[in-house]
Amino acid sequence: MASLITCPHCGTRPKEEFSIRGDATPVRPAPMAPDEAWNDYAHVRANPRGRIREHWQHVSGCRRWLVVERDNFTHEVFAVTDATESRGGAR
Amino acid sequence: MTAYRLASGGLIDRSHTLGFSFDGASLSGHPGDTLASALLASDRLLVGRSFKYHRPRGIVTAGPSEPNALVTVGTGARRDPNTRATVAELYDGLAAVSQNRWPSLAFDLGAVNDRLARFLSAGFYYKTFMWPSAFWEKVYEPLIRRAAGLGRTALSPDPDAYEKSWAHCDLLVVGSGPTGLAAALVAARSGLRVILAEQDFLLGGALLSETMRLDGEAPVVFARRAVEELHGHPNVTLLPRTTVFGWYDDNIFGAVERVQKHSAAVDPARPVERVWRIAAKRAILATGAEERPLVFGGNDRPGVMTADAVATYANRYGVAAGKSVAIFTNGSSGYRTARDLAAQGVGIAALIDSRREAADAAPEGVRLIRGGSVVDTKGRQRIRALVADRGGFEELIACDALAMSGGWSPVIHLACQRGGRPVWSEALQAFLAPDVSGLVTAGAAAGLYRLAECLEDGARKAAAVVEALGRTAAGFERPVVGEETDPSFTALWHVPGAKSKAFVDFQNDVHTRDLGLAVREGFGHVEHAKRYTTSGMATDQGKLGNINAVGILAAMRGVSPAEVGTTTFRPFYTPVSFGALAGTSVGEHAMPVRRSPLHGWAARNGAAFIDAGLWYRSAWFPKAGEKTWRESVDREVRTVREHAGLCDVSTLGKIEVFGPDAAEFLNRLYCNPLLKLPVGKARYGLMLREDGMVYDDGTVSRLGEEHFLLTTTTGMAAGTLAHMEFAAQVLWPELGVRFLSVSDQWAQMSLAGPKARAILQALVEDDLSDAAFPFLAAREVRLKGNLKARLFRISFSGELAYELAVPAGFGEAVADAIMRAGAPHGICAYGLEALNVLRIEKGHVTHAEFDGRVTPDDAGLGRMMATGKPDFIGKRLSTRFGLTAADRAQLVGLKAVEADKDMRAGAHLLKDGAKPSTLNDQGWVSSACFSPTLGGHIALAFLKSGRERYGEKIVVWDKLRGVETAAEVCDPVFVDPENRKLMA
Amino acid sequence: MRYSALSIFKQALAGNLGWKPVWREPEPKPHYDVIIVGGGGHGLATAYYLAREFGIRNVAVVEKGYLGSGNVGRNTTIVRSNYMLPGNEPFYEFSLKLWEGLERELNYNVMLSQRGIISLYHNDSQRDHYTRRGNAMMMEGVAAEQLDRETLKRMLPFLNFDHARFPIVGGLLQRRAGTARHDAVAWGFARGADRLGVDLIQNCEVTGIRRENGLVTGVETTKGFIGCNRLALAAAGNTSRVGTMAGLKLPLESHVLQAFVTEGLKPCIDHVITYGAGHFYISQSDKGGLVFGAEIDGYSSYAQRGNLATAEHVMEEGVTMIPGLSRVRVLRSWGGVMDMSMDGSPIIDRTSIENLYLNCGWCYGGFKATPASGFCFAHLIARGESHHVARALRLDRFERGFPIDEAGAGTQPNLH
């Protein structure tokens, strides 16, 4: 997907400047959260077809971690936000 | 004048002659010719053999969809197999040979397959060749492989260069026919940044072979004028010889420009091909329409061509397809070809129209058969007659070429490459592009076949783009077009009553009976039929035959073509070379090279270098008289243990960490405690992944209350930085911490050995006594001559050792100074191999041990985990049952029982006397070396419950090398377990 | 009907008009013992072995598209058993043994071609890794050979020995590895299952999973409700979507992997060759096309198409490994949706729902596993317990801490 990503800091840049980590939905549990919460965080993915949020890093640019909100079937990108700013949005 | 060249006309330069060869024969053509038109002009109709039956085949089209006329162009390392003669621009000295025939094109032994055709029906190979089982790979398969394939590749290094480029535009117009030119003109005049890409070497598309008048002039005049105007717009880029091969996300188009494929003398300073990645705000597909062949008995005979191709050869190239051309059509297109041929004085044997009634009129004097069809053809290497059916009455009609027109299919490939499925139009009897965003089809590609419609549609759709982009559309005055005929046709998917094979896919030899068999056997789904019969899988990807196949399948299944649907359109529209797609980042330039700031120092000291990721690292420093690497390494190890050695460790990752929460951050990042690390001290640090496995290790030094410096292993430098950034930006953004990678800013060297202090003190102003600079001290020091440096008393070798970091530019000077100061102490330079031996002897782990499946406890570092810390990455999942199980493989040392027997990394471990099996596998050797210190082979290994098994004799099992070595399990620290040398 | 040279001869004389449909096109029955969701290689193989080995014939395979329309029809056809970890190697070797008898077992020529796979390595640490892997294979009784640079020069003179950024040091060879004709595998298993009475139902998309009292009772489909005693999922890249219908939470992420084929060429590359300084791999099909690919694009995707940048990188690796590929033209690219698991290894297991079974997580390596996956899944469904070669492929291995991580990359699916 996404031949181009519009970084909120650097503007529209080719995909090769970015690296992809994966699903941005899981939030790291509190240290004492139940085992299931930790297992879900580390291992379980909703993996829907459609709208998803994904962590990308602009490694060859500002080096910020970004949340790319997009459709994983049509590959349409809806929004790219800085991960620090968008943190908590999924809680 | 060659046999089939017309006396006049065409867009060829008759004043110049180009010599070329085909299968060794010297022939000639003119500038403006394609290889195909020059071959046709020279009476070389037979150009190839089909894939399966090796049937003689001639040129069928005049464009990129050609299935038959595939030849090998060029010689030696510049051979280009499977080149389509119909788009290969003729140049002086072009050398072409035919393919897939032996011993010759005219006489091909493989043609015996044609006689056996009924035994070789679609998918026959799935049903046989199973007995006896050994025969498949020894006999049948080699036979099939030899028979299959088309051209031959030299598979030798390519002397030519390629490159890649980005382009950005408001509007990309694909195709420069009437539609594309009109669109480009409107967009250009409106001020848009326009790219016009055309796969042909001339701009003009269908206008180049059109005879209809525009404003009373030849269409090519309009085309030339339009191109001239476009040239004059600074906001327009014209890309002839450029095929747009793919449409990708975000409206990115891939295109390949053939920069120097039309010349025998390649300029080495320029690429032969260039791949463009075109980022277009909008795109207009003005790719025209493809004429469909008719599917009748013997429709693959050389001399049978599409009617459009026959007209194109006559009008654009001044070549007659034959001297007595028959025409078989289901619509007006055949009449157009008849008119054009008649105008050029070419003989027409008959015009056969499958329709009983039509408004079209044949040229005067041409015999017209309405409601007729062709059911067979005669001749071998060129058609000599056709068998016409006139309402049940058969008639043999002599001809030497046959033009066929089965109607038109809009060229919509690009529009369907991103998941949109084509839409069947009952009115047009064709598939149209789906509604997609960013791209629209126009003109014939949108099913508008009249010239006037094309011009209007191109202009209108460009105007819509202009408006959508917030500008005002400029005007376009459509030239007056002569009287146009009704372009409709009556679909005729296949002609009933075929007397011989009626081909659907020419190259892959798929005929109607194959499709029938597929349907009969349950492979009626269009994808099954394709995969079972291979229809549409040839190098033309079904451009010519697929729609006919869909129509035939629909008829056989009794449904509409809409229900059958098409197979999936995918890149590449036409094949693209590896070289063009790869560009310049190949061979030695596949990846960048990183050199340490001490590279020059190491080279001057005679280092042998090895690859380590992107780095070249000094591996060992051979001295005169040393014959093997082992001699050098053994000497270096001994020198370090007895005197001192200097090693380049600059490639380690170095990350500075600042901020009020720096300590808290690192305390969460590493599994061991770091909160209370005193300023001026270093500590070994172990970083885990969240799943509890070791991620990386290194040292953490506290240079100030809110200032740390950490090192990573060479290979993990980039990954660790990204990991830290993720932790700081996503996991704990509330922590005040910032990082900076300074890996490239510092030259770092390790000075190790009993004499290290004495040598270093000669260069350093500060007091280096053990009391003043104890083990794990880490702070800034001043070198003599006033250079500020960072000094760390840390050791990988187990010796008294220091790591000294100086600004990268001073690295070599400082290293030289150390070597000079160390000379009286017997110092040597040592490399990665000696360092590896030293650390194995000391039982230190690297990524040979940390393979991503190892916990701290596996590596004997379990005590480092500060489980009392509230949180650190990897803490929670480390407690999982599987990560704490007692039978996990644990790090141990191995000593070969017999001193002359070696062990190598990658060997596995077996209990003495146990039978080799996965179940009995006890572990594996991660690192091994000859220890000059111990005088024998030692290894580090992971052994099930290993720490309980010290003293056990075990078999180091290296069946891959055919070696089994008896070894004793021991503590992994072989040298100085009490750390006396380290603390000296 | 039985296939043979004789049947071809006889049918040819009769104008090839007597061939019978390879499979029936049945309407779904109201109820089956077992319904398998997914008519790809693994689903069809499961149905075949359920009927053939375990005598369970009241079985339906429901497929949303056409049979074999998933990854079995869009892969690079490689068959091998050169794995390293004890959780994997016995399973893949079992699979290769099944491959070796498959043509006669199915009476269908899947064109297994044991051309050998050569995995190149380019430095000492890669050599050590491949040594470890080769010895792991030998432990399981699987022949492996280490090839040095000189041997490779003789065998594969077209590799880049002289001007490579990462010089070729050696290679690991498994001679029994090779390729097979991918579509034929799906068709062969389908035909075999059909002949044993399995209903293969195409164009039948599962839209819901009906449950009562904690058990699955059947599936809602585009052809109506179909009841079953046991439900088995073999839906590859779509497993998460189907699993969600039963409330399953799975350790999967769907990714796109591109593959490519060149124009047909006369034989020039005999082996399957993999590049150690990248992910590129290549082989030549019987039709003459060079079939190749490399790594996944790296982002979550359900679209069967990839990115140009990834494709270009694949070509860079190809030309770097074999400079002579430069003038060869690439005909077509395609993409498959991979069910990437959290450790890069598959899952064949029961689920929290007693009569719901799971087969997934094949990442980009499912094709070679097809026979063993079917066999072991059928074993699990029929016997209620894992086949011994598939015991490690458990769903709960992540929470229990027993990952099978060949790449050592951890729980980030796009790194496997």
From TrEMBL, chain A:
UniProt xrefs under InterPro entries: SoxD, SoxD_sf
Domain of life: Bacteria
Its EC number(s): 1.5.3.1
Record's keyword annotation contains Oxidoreductase: yes
Keyword list, A-Z: Oxidoreductase
GO MF term list: sarcosine oxidase activity
Single biological process term from Gene Ontology: tetrahydrofolate metabolic process
Protein name (Swiss-Prot/TrEMBL): Sarcosine oxidase subunit delta
Lineage: Bacteria, Pseudomonadati, Pseudomonadota, Alphaproteobacteria, Hyphomicrobiales
From TrEMBL, chain B:
Domain of life: Bacteria
GO MF term (any one): sarcosine oxidase activity
Residue ranges constituting the GCVT N-terminal domain according to the UniProt record: 598-867
Domain FAD/NAD(P)-binding: from-to ranges: 170-381
A Pfam family hit: Pyr_redox_2
GO biological process, any: tetrahydrofolate metabolic process
Entry EC no(s): 1.5.3.1
Record-linked Gene3D superfamilies: 2Fe-2S iron-sulphur cluster binding domain, sarcosine oxidase, alpha subunit, N-terminal domain (3.10.20.440), FAD/NAD(P)-binding domain (3.50.50.60), Probable tRNA modification gtpase trme, domain 1 (3.30.1360.120)
Residues in Aminomethyltransferase C-terminal domain copies: 890-976
Key words, A-Z: Oxidoreductase
Matches recorded under InterPro entries: 2Fe-2S-bd_N, FAD/NAD-bd_sf, FAD/NAD-binding_dom, GcvT/YgfZ/DmdA, GcvT/YgfZ_C, GcvT_C, GCVT_N, Sarcosine_oxidase_asu
SUPFAM superfamilies: Aminomethyltransferase beta-barrel domain, FAD/NAD(P)-binding domain, Folate-binding domain
Residue intervals of the SoxA A3 domain: 499-583
Class of the enzyme per the UniProt entry, highest EC level: oxidoreductase
NCBIfam families found in the cross-reference section: soxA
Sequence similarity: Belongs to the GcvT family.
UniProt xrefs under PANTHER family: AMINOMETHYLTRANSFERASE, AMINOMETHYLTRANSFERASE, MITOCHONDRIAL
Protein name: Sarcosine oxidase subunit alpha
Automatic annotation (TrEMBL), chain C:
GO molecular function, one term: sarcosine oxidase activity
Location (main, coarse): cytoplasm
Ranges for domain Rhodanese: 34-78
GO biological process, one term: tetrahydrofolate metabolic process
Gene3D superfamilies per the UniProt record, alphabetical: D-Amino Acid Oxidase, subunit A, domain 2 (3.30.9.10), FAD/NAD(P)-binding domain (3.50.50.60)
NCBIfam families: soxB
Name of protein: Sarcosine oxidase subunit beta
